[in-house]
Amino acid sequence: MSFAGMMKHPSAFLPVAMSCGAIATVGIALALVGSNGIRQPDEGGAAHLWQLLMAGQVPIVAFFAIKWLPKAPRQAVPVLVLQALAGIAALAPVLILGL
After folding, report:
1. Which of 73, 60, 54 is nearest to 6 (CA)?
2. DSSP code of residue 91
3. pLDDT tens digits, one per residue of 19-67
């Protein structure tokens, strides 16, 4: 199975899509409020959505690793690397901007 074939499985592409959604959430929140927005006692809906998207990836990535690493490690490792890079990319703006 090729990389493209492996990425057709929901457990492969969903974490990447969720990371893209988390990046979009941060971008939209920054565009609407700005990085110097008024701090609220509650983090706000965007922060909660980002947290749900990021935390929701963990069981999906674990399922993918458990299912595909033993069967096809050469194809599974690049997908796991892509999932990790997407997660880091979604985490980076939050860490850099201190949100």
Report:
1. 73
2. H
3. 999 999 999 988 887 766 556 566 788 889 999 999 999 999 999 999 9
- What does the alpha-carbon distance between residue 57 and residue 15 come to, in Å, rounded to a whole number? 5
DSSP H/E element including 35: none
Residue the block writes with tokens 């096809």: 72
Pair of tokens at residue 4: 């493209």
Domains of the chain by residue range: 3-97
Please give the structure tokens belonging to residue 1.
């199975």
Cα 72 to the chain's mean position, in Å? 23
CA angle 31, 93, 42 (to 5 degrees): 70
